[in-house]
Amino acid sequence: MYLRPAYRRLIWLALVAACAAALYAWRGPAIIGDAEQAASALWRKASAPPPPSDEALQRGQARRAAPDGGTGHTRPAAVPRKCQLNGQTIYTDGPCPAGSQEQLVPENLSVIPR
Questions:
Q1: Comparing C-alpha atoms, which of 107, 111, 76, 75 is closest to residue 92?
Q2: Is-contact 103 83, C-beta < 8 A?
């Protein structure tokens, strides 16, 4: 029995489509779930701001530790502190609460006075 080349191609295409459908039915939801998790992790990593360099952190810490210049008529700016307590980040202008760990404050942190 002789089949035209076009019919042979259609039969192969139908077999490939049937195999792809069977593979999707067998592992499709797991593969799609893994792909969604990988894409969201990649998006979070790509959209996160870059960490400050060591040089920038040192400049910021030195600027906060420097004296105001002695003008006297302005209220000195509060030094912000970043504290880690039970997996939560707390920003304060006073000392860190008991049991927390003080972290380096990013240089580009903006503080809005009350």
A1: 111
A2: yes
Cα gap 14→19, rounded to integer Å: 9
DSSP state of 81: E
pTM of the model: 0.32
Residue whose entry in the numeric block shows the structure tokens 């996160």: 48
Tens digit of each residue's pLDDT, the chain (114 residues): 677 889 999 999 999 999 999 988 888 888 888 889 999 999 988 888 887 788 877 887 777 776 654 444 456 666 788 889 888 888 888 888 888 888 888 777 776 666
Helix locations, 1-114, DSSP H: 5-47, 54-65
How far apart are the C-alpha atoms of 111 and 50, rounded to whole Å?
20
Alpha helices in 48-100 (DSSP H): 54-65
The tokens for 105 are: 């404050």
Quick check: 107 and 52 in contact, CB under 8 A?
A: yes
Q: How many residues comprise the chain?
A: 114
